[in-house]
Design a protein that fits this description.
By secondary structure, the chain is of the alpha/beta class. It contains five helices and ten strands; from the N terminus they run H-E-E-H-E-H-E-H-E-E-H-E-E-E-E. It is globular, with a radius of gyration of 15 Å. The two termini are 17 Å apart.
Length: 163
């Protein structure tokens, strides 16, 4: 399997209870990562019209499901480094055409003034966890994934997703 989403699906089916994300003494199993990612994908599909979702979070376990959720929703996940200045962040946000940024209240002061609402992890966490508990398996098309190896993010259309 060469597709990132199919690989994750495959691992989830083989080892659903194995840890997928380890961070600061917390962990997410592959099954939990899968369910939370799909809940985030549903949320992003219904709450943003932009082709991209900005994620500005420190190293927390919730980063991975939000990142994969953006991809599953057919959006480009744009990682935003909270150590950048507001001016530098504004350049990335405007260049990517974002209308959605997920961040934490602890670091929201790093963001520049935006003309769209900011989504706070603290507000999303419980609704995503609730939605993840009612998750059902299904396939979706139009996945994109990005990497920041070059000065600009490169997007690749995917074949299928795990939603």
């Amino acid at each position: 399997m060469s597709n990132l989403n199919r690989r994750l699906d495959h691992i989830c089916r083989l080892s659903p209870d194995k840890p997928a994300v380890l961070c600061g003494g917390q962990s997410l199993s592959f099954a939990r990562l899968w369910r939370l990612s799909n809940a985030a994908a549903s949320f992003f599909s219904s709450s943003t019209t932009s082709a991209a979702v900005g994620i500005m979070l420190p190293a927390v376990t919730e980063y991975a499901p939000l990142y994969f959720g953006a991809l599953l929703a057919g959006k480009t996940a744009v990682p935003l480094n909270f150590l950048l200045t507001p001016r530098e962040l504004w350049a990335i946000i405007s260049d990517a055409g974002l209308d959605c940024v997920v961040t934490s209240r602890e670091i929201t002061d790093r963001l520049p003034a935006l003309d769209f609402p900011v989504l706070y992890l603290e507000d999303l966490a419980s609704s995503l966890a609730s939605a993840a508990s009612t998750f059902s398996w299904r396939w979706r098309t139009g996945v994109r994934w990005s990497y920041m190896a070059r000065p600009r993010s490169t997007c690749h259309p995917g074949v299928a997703s795990f939603s």
